[in-house]
Amino acid sequence: MPTDLYISTDIEADGPIPGPYSMLSLGMATAATYDGTTFRRLEPDTFYRELQPISPGFVPEALAVSGLDRAALARTGAAPAVAMAENVAWLAELAGRHRARPVFVGYPLGFDWMFTYWYQVRFTGGSPFGHSGHVDMKTLFAFKARRPVRSVGKRSMPAELLSGRAHTHHALDDALEQAELFCSLVAWSGAAQ
């Protein structure tokens, strides 16, 4: 049975979808491995890049969330092809070192997965996560808490599950925060029956 290597991922973007809008930063942190028997929490290895915008369009409210400066990133950000090649190489090195396959972990999954997967496929030709190697922490919590997915959020989680790290809207900070949340969620026995 192959081993999973869970990679907590967060991105900041200037709009709701990739292509017309840009991923401006990407943060990843290793969380754990699981071989079907043993779940092993890892000290985080991290990856962070700020990227040049790929399109002129942006949503001011989306851009304001991250506080990133598009004009500055156009000058100083990594070219998306370079950043994503570095990201894919980083993931391959980790996979080899841990003898495991990367699994994308997000909260909530959809937004961060959509941008990361699109950028990996668009700029490197494929994704180390494949098309389905991902876990949504919001769904994981909802099922363990025995609640509908649309009724839960971090505010509804027990305090002991949450990371002590602040949610800053800096992609690496938030990836590290989410790695801790993921490990807590996996260990949590869930709501009392």
UniProtKB/TrEMBL annotation:
Keyword Hydrolase recorded: yes
GO molecular function term, any single one: nucleic acid binding
Coiled coil: none
Gene3D superfamilies with a match to the protein in the record: Ribonuclease H-like superfamily/Ribonuclease H (3.30.420.10)
Keywords: Exonuclease, Hydrolase, Nuclease
Hydrolase keyword on record: yes
Descriptive protein name: Exonuclease
